[in-house]
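ok trying this again, last paste got cut off
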Amino acid sequence: MNQTLTVFSPAKVNLHLSIGAKRADGYHDAYSVMHALTLHDTVTVRCERETEDAPIAVDVRCTTHGGVDELSIASEDNIAYKAMVALADEFGLSDAGYRFTVHIDKHIPHAAGLGGGSSNAAAALLAACRVFGIDPDGERVFAVASKIGADVPFFLRGGCAQLGGRGDVFERDLAPMNAPVVLVRPDSGVSTAAAYRAFDENAGQADLRAQGVSAERAQDVQLYNNLAAASETVMPELVEVKDWLRQQVGVARDASTGEPCVLLSGSGSATFCVCESMNAAYAVVSAAKQRGWWARSCSFTSAGARIVEGRVPGAARTNVGAVHKSW
């Protein structure tokens, strides 16, 4: 049995992120409103099965595009690898002879708060579910996703959703929007662990503002992130990016507060702004690149990770200039 699947693997931003105090299990209570973006990786999964009594094998490789840095880790340390192995373990298929080759065309930078790794894991889960004949909407699949990473369950749904627990428990959908978005990132990423250490050092930052999320539509959510200040202590350049974006022409403003729609996504290092038009977004991207920052324009989307037929819309047609690296 040979099968090849192509999966759309989108990025996300947090429109709202409220982090509470650290729990006894080492995690933090969190309320989040996440929204998927059209910026995406493309995950191609090939499966071979020549025998039914061999252990599962997964090989993950990556091609980076558009100025995205390489990530030199072993295949077995990649979250997509872990997702496939965990799913096989959950359904008793670890010794069923499946051999997977996973290739990630990566456009989402890592350590950016955009969920690229978690999205890749969700994409790998969807592909494995198709191969194994498992319903991807089943509770056991979502349980596997939650164990792999707090953001992974969101990408199995996509669109815009409010999540509780430690940021992994689905609470409700919000009507998604399709406004233009600009993402701006300094040359390096923010370690999530470092950001949370800085957050814990200032317990007064903990503010589980669940009651503040009452909007029914994504466009009505007031942007909020109480983890941003901690990330800014880890990477002070984030303040410069935020202040610069707030001053740009064409950045949308909140209808209630009049404030520019600019926010750090998750723990960063990507800051996003909502723009009034795509032309305005292009202009902001151009200006940000002139300052030496990584910048991309995209838009919000209702999609999550999805298996697609044929070429993924917007995927690179060529590997010219790409960096090949085995993970």
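PB: full thing came through this time. The chain is about 25% helix and 30% strand.
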